[in-house]
């Protein structure tokens, strides 16, 4: 396992990353429960959770809500993700969007080293995990993504580098024309993030989705007013059925705007 990780790091390690990258990050651990496997930085606080015997299933509500942004880009060709964690959304997209390129940026090498424990696929022609700081990496991807999913947390919450106005401006710039962004907001000052998103995307181009069963919210933003063409969605039929309640919630909220 150590040799595999070493080879992977040699192949994908960013030339801008510091050699002491591992030493600057908290090392997470894996917690096994009766039916779930969790990624934790502190005991009792789960950063990511999967069903041990159904690792591709979206277990947490907000992960489905974030992927509801596919409604805005039904023919996505390239998806970017900030934050790997246990890879819930990466695995779902890899399984149900077989023609889509997926690129995940994660700044903690200890998290990446656990990818096989969470059944995250190996890098291949359409999937890769990049070790880098997203605030530094996204400016190199201008116009690159049809959909960008931001769920970047460390042991303290959302890092300052992923909270700035510049970061949200870079998120918008990383989107292709007609692209969309979904971000998980599990923080005390969500309104600050929303205000910055509105400055980046425009007030009418940001939608806030509450999570009734959780204490976080999901913000969805887009570059241009989307056209609802779910009938042409490239997502598999099984995944469309799984995400149908989320799609309906988003449609209903957009109609009320």
Layout of secondary structure:
Layout lengths: L1 H11 L16 E4 L3 E7 L2 E7 L9 H7 L10 E5 L5 H9 L4 E6 L2 H4 L14 E5 L2 H4 L7 E6 L14 H9 L1 E11 L4 H12 L4 E5 L6 E6 L14 H20 L1
Parallel strand pairs: 4-5, 4-7, 5-6, 7-8
Antiparallel strand pairs: 1-2, 2-3, 8-10, 9-10
For the structure shown, list the relevant keywords.
257 residues; alpha/beta; Rossmann fold; 7-stranded mixed sheet; 3-stranded antiparallel sheet; globular
Verbal overview:
- By secondary structure, the protein is α/β, with parallel strands linked by helices.
- It has one domain: Rossmann fold (3-Layer(aba) Sandwich), CATH 3.40.50.150.
- Helices cover 30% and strands 24% of the residues.
- The protein is built from eight helices and ten strands.
- A seven-stranded mixed β-sheet has the order 6-5-4-7-8-10-9, with helices on both faces. A three-stranded antiparallel β-sheet has the order 1-2-3, with no helix packed on it.
- Helix 6 crosses helix 7 (190-201).
- It is globular.
- Mean pLDDT is 87; it is low at 1-19.
């Amino acid at each position: 396992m150590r040799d595999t990780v070493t080879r992977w790091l040699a192949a994908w390690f960013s030339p801008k990353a510091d050699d002491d990258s591992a030493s600057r990050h908290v090392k997470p651990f894996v917690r096994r429960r009766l039916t779930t496997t969790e990624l934790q930085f502190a005991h009792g606080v789960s950063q990511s959770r999967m069903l041990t015997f159904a690792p591709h299933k979206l277990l947490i509500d907000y992960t489905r809500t974030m992927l509801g942004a596919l409604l805005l880009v039904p023919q996505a060709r390239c998806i970017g993700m900030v934050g790997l964690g246990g890879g819930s959304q990466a695995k779902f997209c890899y399984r149900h969007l077989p023609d889509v390129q997926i690129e995940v940026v994660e700044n903690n090498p200890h998290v990446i080293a656990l990818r096989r424990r969470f059944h995250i696929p190996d890098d291949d022609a359409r999937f890769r995990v990049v070790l880098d700081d997203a605030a530094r990496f996204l400016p190199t991807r201008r116009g690159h993504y049809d959909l960008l999913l931001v769920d970047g947390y460390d042991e303290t919450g959302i890092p300052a580098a992923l909270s700035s106005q510049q970061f949200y401006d870079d998120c918008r710039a990383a989107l292709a024309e007609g692209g969309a962004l979904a971000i998980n907001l599990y923080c005390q000052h969500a309104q600050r993030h929303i205000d910055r998103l509105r400055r980046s995307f425009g007030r009418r181009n940001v939608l806030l989705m509450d999570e009734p069963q959780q204490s976080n919210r999901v913000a969805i933003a887009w570059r241009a007013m989307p056209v609802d063409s779910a009938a042409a969605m490239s997502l598999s039929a099984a995944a469309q059925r799984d995400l149908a309640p989320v799609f309906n919630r988003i449609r209903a909220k957009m109609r009320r705007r």
